[in-house]
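Objective 1b of the project was to move from sequence-level analysis to a structural picture of ligand recognition. The entry below was assembled by the postdoctoral researcher (A.K.) and checked by the PI before modelling. It contains the amino acid sequence of the target and the SMILES of the bound compound, NAP.
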Amino acid sequence: MHRSVVITGANGFVGRNVGMFLSKNGFQTTSLVRKGKAVNFGKKITSETLSENSLVPKIRNADALLHFIGQGKQTVDSDYEKVNVGIARNTVSLCKKAKIKKIIYISGLGVDKFATLGYFISKYKAEQEIIHSGLDYTILRASYMIGNDDPLSENLQRQVKKGEIVIPGSGNYRFQPIFIDDVSRIIIKSVTEKKFSKKIIDLVGPQIVSYNAFVKEFSRGKVRMKKIDFERAYRDALHDKGSFGVDDLSIMVGDYVGNHKKLADLTRMKFTRYETVLKSRGLS
Ligand SMILES: NC(=O)c1ccc[n+]([C@@H]2O[C@H](COP(=O)([O-])OP(=O)(O)OC[C@H]3O[C@@H](n4cnc5c(N)ncnc54)[C@H](OP(=O)(O)O)[C@@H]3O)[C@@H](O)[C@H]2O)c1
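Corresponding predicted holo structure:
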């Protein structure tokens, strides 16, 4: 039986990788993207706000909606409340109108009700919109997802071209990279297996790695790593300069690690090590 999913944010890093993976694995995909944005799998529908009624008949009764719209940096015109919370609310409403019973949402590792970071607060509020919607859901709280075109690798690649990679602060803060194809397999399970129903799960890879160690592996030790004072990195970010945003830096030093064992027990998957991803994708 063919499964059908609707994907928001389908032209972003997660959307295009998961969309392509699902498409190759027999899923019918309908992507909701903004005007002028392309996807090279499945069907595409243009939507600016996800609240247009014309969308409803085109996506009715899909098995699940994968909500991948999100932003990790805010501006005067596009703040977290509007995008991360407001569009999640529109998505819930769209699912109800189109009789789509399940939402899969990528939240962030470190998100909880005690969060004080603006990005995390917006992700928590989006989670709450989904949890209290009455719909079924799987919420995946992600560490960095890596593949051949992920935002972190692209950022590091740009720095490699300039001849040095900047490490804000000590670089000893840790994270748990997870391969985007493993994420796609988890999403397929979340759509098809009952045990993922109404679950909030850490989306974390099998290894806890420091930023220093990851960057070293990424650059194969061939590019100079330049430590800069965290205060300087933060000031640059506040002035929209440098390689990281204010909230990127906060998440980095937050040293967020999660429960990989719970994910491995639930999925019964064998996960890809980050060194393998970097090598196989020509990233290291
Ligand atoms: N990448 C990671 O490692 C990571 C880690 C933790 C959580 N996440 C979460 O995972 C989700 C997907 O991340 P990603 O890496 O794929 O991000 P991405 O590459 O930046 O893609 C973001 C997507 O959201 C869309 N979008 C942004 N603002 C929008 C708006 N105002 N209206 C409509 N669409 C809008 C973008 O569409 P346009 O192209 O039209 O702008 C794009 O399709 C996000 O919620 C992110 O917070 C990602």
